[in-house]
Prior knowledge:
InterPro entries: Antitoxin_Rv0909/MT0933. By secondary structure, this protein is mostly helical. It is built from three helices and no strands.
Amino acid sequence: MGKLGDMANKAKEMAKGHPEQADKGVEGAERMVDERTGDKYDAQTDKAADAARRSYGSNSTTDR
C-alpha cells in the first residue's frame, strides 16, 4: 500500500483508540466547511461526518 493509504490506516487506528478526540476533530472540520460555504453543502457534510464516525466505530451523532 502507498504512503497515503498507510497514513489513512494509521489515523483510523488512532481514532478507534480515542473516539472522543476523533469526534471533536470531525465536528470541527464539518463546522469549518459549513461556515466557509455558508451551509450550502450542509447535507453532504453531515453525511461525510457520519461516514467518518462510522469508520472508527463512534456512536456519536450530532443533533442539529
